[in-house]
Specification:
Keywords: ATP-binding, Nucleotide-binding, Transport. The chain is an alpha+beta fold. It has helices spanning 46-53, 85-92, 110-120, 126-139, 155-168, 185-199, and strands at 8-17, 20-30, 61-66, 69-70, 73-76, 79-82, 95-98, 173-176. The strands form 3 sheets. A 4-stranded antiparallel beta sheet has the order 2-1-3-4, covered by helices on one side.
Length: 200
């Protein structure tokens, strides 16, 4: 019987910014379907850890595996070397990340924000991408906002659009970086409700 690889596996991951040690030998395994919360004070490396897993930070020591595949490095002649091109993109496509400050394009509508990557990266037709986008907007409770621009949405609504955009790429792993920290207290519940539904 073959064992299933962890969704995420970190082995002795270290990250420095100048002389500051931010991650000091982190070891972690997350099983497929698992939900893990990383808790710590401001500046303790939570965002840096997530950015390493999403390979937005590539200058780290140690090894990160996503569903058994080594992130950002490849084995050549018995040595680990920096991966590039299609090998790296293949692993990165497994991860979706939602940030605390939404990062929506202000000049695009809600549906435009969601379908952009589907058209450019997944090479879907606009019609196919809009079908996926509309399904996701229904899932996050924003189907009536598809033609609105981000400036006309509440913070909670913008964050739900950001979640839908990340889900559009069908990642196997979702990372949420303090997604409610920029929201007013009354908007936190609507975002947490969507996240809870996704986890179930």
């Amino acid at each position: 019987m073959t064992s299933i690889a962890p969704a995420i596996k970190l082995q002795d991951v270290k990250k420095r910014f100048g002389s500051l040690d931010v991650l000091c030998g982190v070891n972690l395994e997350v099983e497929p379907g698992g939900v893990v919360c990383v808790i710590g004070p401001s500046g303790s490396g939570k965002s840096t850890l997530l950015r390493c897993v999403a390979y937005l930070e590539d200058d780290f020591e140690g090894e990160i595996y996503l569903e058994g595949e080594l992130l950002g490095r490849t084995l050549r002649n018995g040595r680990l070397e920096q991966a590039g091109g299609s090998a790296l993109r293949k692993v990165q496509m497994k991860v979706g990340m939602v940030f605390q400050n939404f990062n929506l394009w202000p000049h695009k509508t809600v549906i435009g924000n969601i379908i952009e990557a589907l058209i450019l990266v997944k090479k879907m037709s606009r019609k196919e991408a809009e079908v996926v986008g509309d399904q996701l907007l229904t899932k996050v409770g924003l189907s009536d906002k598809r033609k609105e621009y981000p400036s006309r949405l509440s913070g909670g609504q913008q964050q739900r659009v950001a979640i839908a955009r990340a889900l559009a790429m069908r990642p196997q792993i979702m990372l949420f970086d303090e997604v409610t920290s920029a929201l007013d207290a009354e908007l936190v519940d609507e975002v947490l409700h969507v996240m809870k539904q996704l986890a179930e």
